Amino acid sequence: MLKVADVISFQFSQELRLVAGEKGLSRMVTNVGIHNHEELESIPKGFGAGDFILTPLYMCGDDPEKIHAYLCAFIEAGVAAIGIQNIFFDALPQKTVEHINESAVPVFLFPKAVLTEDLVVEIKNAIAKDNKYTEYEALLAEMIEGQNTSQNQKLLLALIDPLGRKEAAVYYFYLLSKGTGADIMETVKALDQEISDPLLGHEMKALKYRHGFFLFAAGPKWCAQGSPLKLIREYGFDTESYRIGLHYWGKDENLEEALKKSVAASVVSRCEGQKQTIYDDMGIYKYLFPMRKEAPIYREYRQRVGKLADYDEKNHTNLLETAIAYIENNGELNKTAESMFQHINTIRYRLKRISEIMGIQRGNGHDFYVELSFLIKAHKVLTLPEYEGFFDA
Questions:
Q1: Is the pLDDT of residue 359 over 90?
Q2: Cα–Cα distance between 25 and 18 in angstroms, integer?
Q3: Beta strand 51-55 with 107-110: parallel, antiparallel or unpaired?
Q4: Predicted pLDDT at 139
Q5: Residue 305 clears pLDDT 60, i.e. is over it
Q6: I need a surface site. Which of 54, 105, 132, 381 has the fewest CB within 10 A?
Q7: Percent of the chain beyond pLDDT 90?
Q8: In whole angstroms, what separates CA 321 from the centre of its chain?
Q9: Mean pLDDT of 212-231
């Protein structure tokens, strides 16, 4: 959503001078309204929440009492902000400033040389552009969740690959903290405004999706150099709060698949505690996406790992923890024992019990490790809280 602070950050609004209500700069702007000659009684019906009001206050002249009454009426109507063309006065009455500050509704003055109609057009354009980010997220969701249409795909392709190269580095950034969707959207908009300037020739685009965002860097140079992350860091963007998945999208692949692969790689980054994972380097994890609940492998996972979890719960053991540590230590007994502060013989005994409970034969040690590894990696993915419905659509 567009904030009042966003509006006044644009070049067209540099003539707007804040005179009161600074604490309300985070208010959301969804519409722009003009007030010219309307009577005081009409304000509650004509204006409301989300409105950025532009007015010369013709009805007030330089009468401080009328100015106070009209501005109080706008505030009571719940408007987002007020811009006053200072035709009749250059400052607000002190009691009005105090009331505005208490209400935290930003009020600006702008010179009469600035055309109100021009401000209206620019603010409306900013609102429309802001709304597009939400629309684009919906398009991404439809594509990833299999509800894609050819028209939607064309819109996204034109947005992220304007020159039709059909080649790009596709990143997905998953935010580790519990930031809200609105917080993520504000971050994405700020980043996108920095990187998508056509004069810079970057061919880059940032679009929010769920609890993170996609970063598209079109063209072969990005695939060859792998430098988009370096570039956005130069713009001051902090990548440390994210787990990143990367897939190189090529001409022989659908964009839908590229999106899914970059998201899958970000999931692996979280599972393995890595900052970034490239899809082609995911190993066994590549075969876990998408994992549909009706698929045989899902049922196998639920049956075998479920048995181990049930056994631990009933007997107050930690065999599942041991299995995870064994796989995380690449099947090395000494390292597994050290990580769990146990004797190596204890680990050997636990692995024997794990094989018995899960029904995995240990006749061939390598086969045991491979099968257990597959099931444990599936467990790590599927126990992520936000996995539900993410890949099994």
A1: no
A2: 10
A3: unpaired
A4: 87
A5: yes
A6: 132
A7: 39
A8: 32
A9: 77
Distances (CA, A) of 325 to 36, 159, 311, 332, 373: 71, 44, 17, 10, 11
Provide the angle, in degrees to the nearest 10, between the axes of the packed helices 255-272 and 116-144: 80
pLDDT bracket for residue 11 (50, 70, 90):
confident
- Whether the predicted pLDDT of 323 surpasses 70: yes
Task: Read off the pTM.
Answer: 0.66
